[in-house]
Specification:
The chain is flat and about 55 Å long. The longest helix is centred in the C-terminal third of the chain and has 32 residues, at 143-174. The termini are close together. By secondary structure, the protein is mainly α. It has helices spanning 2-11, 17-29, 32-42, 49-61, 63-70, 75-94, 99-114, 119-135, 143-174.
Length: 180
């Protein structure tokens, strides 16, 4: 998905590998925003500019972040979408906003479209929610959110299926031995 979006941006103007890398760099830099939100969420005091500098320093000093943002990989946008989904999930849980569960599934679905490595995080989020609903005996009460969230996540993933089928056909999408 990320490569397709970057290629679409490049088709609007100059086409060069450097421009492709700059597009991916911009997408990868978006991870700052959900991290700042989570920093404020788990912080005892309101976020101050010093915490922002600390977050930027921590990201800049982390080899994993520098390595992923330097090379044109799609995992950083996937990580961003996972963290946004996690933030929505936390809002739903701690602020009693069940509608944010649906947003969490939407972002997790798009994270899966961006990179398949989001799969274990989706399974973990669903398992955590299922355990929580079973412990609070609210599974039946939240059935509407489970169904709606599942459908929203499926719609997000189906955008990739629709594009892949239109580009590669059914056989190329589902029956090839390489990932499309």
């Amino acid at each position: 998905l990320v490569n397709v979006i970057a290629a679409q941006h490049m088709s609007l103007g100059v086409q060069s590998f450097e421009l492709f890398q700059m597009n991916i760099l911009c997408y990868a830099s978006l991870i700052f925003f959900p991290l700042a939100t989570l920093l404020e969420y788990f912080s005892e005091t309101p976020i101050r500019i010093s915490k922002i500098y600390l977050l930027v320093l921590a990201l800049g000093a982390t080899p994993f972040f520098v390595h992923n943002i330097t090379f044109t990989w799609t995992k950083m946008l996937c990580n961003t979408l996972i963290l946004i989904g996690l933030t929505c999930q936390l809002w739903a849980h701690f602020n009693n906003w069940p509608s944010h569960r649906i947003l969490a599934y939407l972002f997790m679905g798009f994270a899966f479209v961006a990179h398949y490595s989001a799969g274990p995080y989706i399974v973990a989020m669903v398992a955590a929610e299922l355990i929580r609903d079973l412990q609070h005996r609210s599974l039946i009460k939240h059935t509407r959110y489970w169904i709606t969230g599942g459908l929203v996540g499926l719609i997000a993933v189906s955008t990739w299926w629709a594009w892949a089928i239109a580009s590669y056909g059914v056989e190329g999408t589902f029956l090839s031995n390489s990932s499309v």
